[in-house]
Design a protein that fits this description.
membrane; transmembrane; mainly alpha; FxsA; single chain
Length: 128
């Protein structure tokens, strides 16, 4: 419940504040253009990274390997693309961290650790 509060109330409030500061510093038109450009760039990056990840998953499956890393990459790309397409500077920064491979490699160990903890605590069930 607290997470939903943060996502639906706190993040938009912070985004509005960032929009106001940016429009005051750079002007309204440049701020709007920046929002549009990040949305277009986010779509392009998500598509490019997503197609590459799908190719990697298919390749790993054809070799008989489980594509664990690629699946985590795919989830990061999906979430990062959604964050970049949604208007806002804070969500854009988070989206870039999930979309760009060098930045994503900094976040993946945290994701893996939280997944392991959730599995160990029984919050995620693995069916074998």
């Amino acid at each position: 419940m607290k997470i939903l509060l943060g996502i639906f109330i706190v993040v938009p409030a912070l985004e509005i504040g960032a929009f106001l500061l940016a429009s005051k510093a750079a002007g309204v038109i440049p701020t709007i253009l920046l929002i549009i450009i990040t949305g277009i760039a986010g779509s392009y990056l998500a598509k490019k990274q997503g197609l590459e990840t799908i190719r990697r998953v298919q390749q790993e499956l054809s070799y008989g390997r489980i594509p664990g890393e690629s699946i985590i990459d795919g989830a990061c790309i999906l979430i990062g693309g959604c964050l970049l397409v949604s208007p806002g500077f804070i969500t854009d920064i988070l989206g870039l961290f999930l979309l760009l491979p060098p930045l994503r490699s900094l976040i993946k160990p945290i994701i893996k650790k939280s997944l392991r903890n959730a599995i160990n605590k029984g919050r995620i069930n693995i069916i074998r």
